[in-house]
């Protein structure tokens, strides 16, 4: 009994000693918050976003929520302390339109394509292009929640950029499915969800070789579905009012999923880039009285006043048009292409001047660190810096209806915070720590080679110009023969990729079930590779864009074609 009391006394002395000195050691790895857990971030410059900036203050977090914030906030005795002296603390950043956390499509063929009489033994990873319109990409009832798959390191690169929240959505077909707003932690997917469904996502990209393949066909299909949804609503309203003696209408999952859309209760996000497509989307939305948002909108610099007159909301892409990496004749580019590339960074400033409600999104940037780099390009093009940070914090929070939970550093809000070594838009700034739902992540050094997406802007933590294999210490080597496995809806597709590297340029050939193809526009920067190739699939010329990351003798990434995206993995074969 005495021994037990001695142990308890010793524990109390140790606890009192720690709280008296105020010394707390931050764990080197991510720490999951538990009931009653408290943190104190002290000594940092706090950019609250919605209020005054606190030059030297303290933030107290308990149970994943901000308990208090201010210049003279007392630190609870049980709080673990992060010394933020010399750092700047920001609210966690939003990426307002992504595909983050979506797992590869399920094997819809259940292995049936592997053999059997009359069955093509070659699993075709582009077979969806010849599928009927009722297949994936044509079903508004599809939810991203059913496709989420999160591992411990899934969002490492995004968190290293300061991104803590994202609107994630499928990106296949015309009716791409329903989105979800998620926090970028490492717990089970269902614990990351902040809001679902938020929107129905629609693209004007048709399917090659089948209806609706043309733009006219896409709009005919969209209008017919919306008209059918209205008729479906009327049928059920009549039946519900007087069911006796009436034939019960059939249940249709797709038309049922469109009911909150035609009622204006669920926004429609149109993926559009050009001025013409933005006008078309607005016309369709007005025809059916839809609550709509424009995503992408890289040409909005040209029609900002029009967008304001329509009270449009824009999720503006920071994936600016880039100069082709291996163009043979630079003078062959048209004036309109050159003009669009030069003007795209001006879109944010023009939207701000016109009073259009907008938020930033990554637009599928290959390197997440370019999110901040390209936001700085928007600042250089005239967007006030305070507006740039709001477009990544409080503005998307308001658009998504979560501004009482996120978007600023205020008492009672979710503790999504970014601790940076300085101004987050400065090229020399590094993100040191990120907090998501009160869980602390220490950011490890991230490889950040420069490239076209960075606009030639380098510096520690964001990459230096001229990086790449052969010129950057520790850069990956792409040369060799790679065995690839592509996760298609119809099973795994095996291909052999042969690459030759010269500095940052890549050439080579890929052998696929459809025959060989030459690599074009190949490039390696750090450990990131990009290239394209063209296949002849069922008489159609199909361009495949490949983006991957090399780690030693392993490679993984995505292949995109015809509006669809497929994950792949691979291993380098010994010589």
Largest sheet descriptor: 8 strands, mixed
CATH-defined topology of the domain at 469-573: Lipocalin
Overall mean pLDDT stands at 80
Quickly give the structural class.
alpha+beta
Number of helices: 13
Question: How far is the first residue's CA from the last residue's CA?
Answer: 69 Å
Gross morphology: globular
Sheet-strand content, in percent, reads 25-35%
CATH architecture of the domain at 469-573: Beta Barrel
Radius of gyration: 26 Å
Name of the CATH first level of the domain at 469-573: Mainly Beta
Helix content: 10-25%
* Relevant CATH superfamily of the domain at 469-573: Quinohemoprotein amine dehydrogenase alpha subunit, domain 2
Give the total of beta strands: 27
Low-confidence stretches: 1-35, 106-134, 447-473
How are the elements arranged and paired?
Elements: H1 2-21, E1 38-46, E2 54-62, E3 65-70, E4 80-83, E5 88-91, E6 93-98, H2 156-161, E7 163-168, E8 175-178, E9 180-183, H3 189-192, E10 193-195, E11 200-203, H4 215-241, H5 253-257, H6 259-262, E12 268-272, H7 275-287, E13 292-296, H8 304-309, E14 313-317, H9 335-343, H10 347-354, E15 357-361, H11 370-380, H12 385-390, H13 394-399, E16 417-420, E17 431-436, E18 439-442, E19 480-488, E20 491-502, E21 505-512, E22 515-518, E23 520-525, E24 528-537, E25 540-551, E26 554-561, E27 564-573
Parallel strand pairs: 1-4, 1-5, 6-7, 11-12, 12-13, 13-14, 14-15
Antiparallel strand pairs: 1-2, 2-3, 5-16, 7-9, 8-11, 9-10, 16-17, 17-18, 19-20, 19-27, 20-21, 21-22, 21-23, 23-24, 24-25, 25-26, 26-27
């Amino acid at each position: 009994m005495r021994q037990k009391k001695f142990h308890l006394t010793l524990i109390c002395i140790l606890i009192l000693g720690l709280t008296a000195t105020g010394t707390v050691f931050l764990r080197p790895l991510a720490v999951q918050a538990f009931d009653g857990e408290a943190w104190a971030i002290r000594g940092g410059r706090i950019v609250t976003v919605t209020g005054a900036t606190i030059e030297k203050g303290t933030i107290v977090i308990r149970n994943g929520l901000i308990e208090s914030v201010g210049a003279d906030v007392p630190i609870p005795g049980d709080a673990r302390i992060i010394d933020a002296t010399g750092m700047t603390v920001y609210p966690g950043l939003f990426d307002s339109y992504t595909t983050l956390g979506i797992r590869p499509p399920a094997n819809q063929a259940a292995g049936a394509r592997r053999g059997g009489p009359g069955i093509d033994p070659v699993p075709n990873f582009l077979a969806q292009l010849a599928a009927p319109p009722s297949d994936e990409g044509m079903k508004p009832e599809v939810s991203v929640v059913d496709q989420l798959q999160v591992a411990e390191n899934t969002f490492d690169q995004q968190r290293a950029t300061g991104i803590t929240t994202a609107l994630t959505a499928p990106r296949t077909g015309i009716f791409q499915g329903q989105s979800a707003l998620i926090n970028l932690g490492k717990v089970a997917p269902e614990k990351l969800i902040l809001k679902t469904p938020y929107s129905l996502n629609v693209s004007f990209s048709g399917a090659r070789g089948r209806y609706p393949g043309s733009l006219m066909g896409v709009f005919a299909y969209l209008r017919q579905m919306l008209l059918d949804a209205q008729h479906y609503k009327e049928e059920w309203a009549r039946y519900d009012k007087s069911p006796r003696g009436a034939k019960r209408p059939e249940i249709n999952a797709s038309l049922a999923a469109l009911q909150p859309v035609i009622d204006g209760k669920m926004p429609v996000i149109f993926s559009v880039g050009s001025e013409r497509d933005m006008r078309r989307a607005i016309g369709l939305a007005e025809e059916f009285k839809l609550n709509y948002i424009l995503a992408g909108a890289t040409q909005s610099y040209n029609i900002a006043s029009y967008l304001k007159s329509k009270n449009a909301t824009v999720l503006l892409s920071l994936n600016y048009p880039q100069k082709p990496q291996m163009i043979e004749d630079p003078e062959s580019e048209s004036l309109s292409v050159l003009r669009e590339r030069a003007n795209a960074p001006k879109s944010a400033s023009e939207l701000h001047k016109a009073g259009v409600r907008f938020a930033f999104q990554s637009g599928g940037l290959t390197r997440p660190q370019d999110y901040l780099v390209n936001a700085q390009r928007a600042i250089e093009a005239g967007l006030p810096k305070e507006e740039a940070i709001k477009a990544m914090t409080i503005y998307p929070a308001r658009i998504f209806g979560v501004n009482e939970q996120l978007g600023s550093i205020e008492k009672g809000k979710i503790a999504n915070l970014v601790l940076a070594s300085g101004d987050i838009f400065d090229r020399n700034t590094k993100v040191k720590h990120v907090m998501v739902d009160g869980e602390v992540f220490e950011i490890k050094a991230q490889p950040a080679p420069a490239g076209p997406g960075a606009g030639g802007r380098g510096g520690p933590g964001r990459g230096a110009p001229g990086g790449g294999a052969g010129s950057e210490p520790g850069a990956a080597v792409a040369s060799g023969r790679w065995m690839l496995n592509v996760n298609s809806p119809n099973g795994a597709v095996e291909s052999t990729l042969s690459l030759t590297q010269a500095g940052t340029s890549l050439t080579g050939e890929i052998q696929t079930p459809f025959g060989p193809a030459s690599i074009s526009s190949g490039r390696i920067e750090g450990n990131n590779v990009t290239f394209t190739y063209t296949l002849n699939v069922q008489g159609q010329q199909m361009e495949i864009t490949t983006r991957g990351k090399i780690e030693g003798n392993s490679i993984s990434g995505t292949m995109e074609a015809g509006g669809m995206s497929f994950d792949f993995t691979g291993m380098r074969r010994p010589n």
